[in-house]
């Protein structure tokens, strides 16, 4: 699917003055340097509306029409996906919805599973610095903020293969979503978390710069999560570690235990009541409340 840019036809792009459009020219000037020959980012395109930036960029990469470092941003998408093909939708210009194309040459394929975790570290770091919001990571791909003393999901990450040599990583961040616009009670936004700025241009530049720095550092050591510092940094910012969680696995199976580590393969290690340390490579993770309470923390999953 080709993303459609409705910038000329969309007469309502300034209908909400609290949500101005992104400045594509300024973004390219700030991120794409020396004709794209310095740094990671080669192209930054902003479209007004599309189905899914991930689907669009995967298609372009598969057709050989996009190179590593391509960034595709949508002001609005109506078929955005999280894990397990869950829908991610939000009002126009209320968040950042974008995908990047990476080709981690020199990194063994078995280490590519670290890319969503790397993206989480880079994004959380950027949000803390640029927006003043303390952002935690929920394994494997959620970004959490605190709103009125409660953990809420404000962002998610989805990585997809694009042919034999590329990965498209999609990032969705709720920026100015208001309480009455939340899709589920457990969702949040940077605005609701008390961000010092909700300027999406500023936040997007910060996230992409942080992602570029972490990616180059990781790739320079062959994707080694320990030597790059990624494994320790992820663990330090992971809200899942140290908690009792339930891992909901394919086939209607589940495992409950304390999340004690993220191993060298990026898997979450659970210490079960039976004394077994069980690595979990894929599944939905529910943060359980302290002993004596019932239910969970209102986890939202992906949208």
TrEMBL record:
<keyword id="KW-0092">Biotin</keyword>
<dbReference type="InterPro" id="IPR003142">
    <property type="entry name" value="BPL_C"/>
</dbReference>
<dbReference type="GO" id="GO:0004077">
    <property type="term" value="F:biotin--[biotin carboxyl-carrier protein] ligase activity"/>
</dbReference>
<keyword id="KW-0436">Ligase</keyword>
<feature type="domain" description="BPL/LPL catalytic">
    <location>
        <begin position="34"/>
        <end position="219"/>
    </location>
</feature>
<dbReference type="InterPro" id="IPR045864">
    <property type="entry name" value="aa-tRNA-synth_II/BPL/LPL"/>
</dbReference>
<dbReference type="InterPro" id="IPR004408">
    <property type="entry name" value="Biotin_CoA_COase_ligase"/>
</dbReference>
<dbReference type="Pfam" id="PF03099">
    <property type="entry name" value="BPL_LplA_LipB"/>
</dbReference>
<dbReference type="Pfam" id="PF02237">
    <property type="entry name" value="BPL_C"/>
</dbReference>
<protein>
    <recommendedName>
        <fullName>biotin--[biotin carboxyl-carrier protein] ligase</fullName>
        <ecNumber>6.3.4.15</ecNumber>
    </recommendedName>
</protein>
<dbReference type="InterPro" id="IPR004143">
    <property type="entry name" value="BPL_LPL_catalytic"/>
</dbReference>
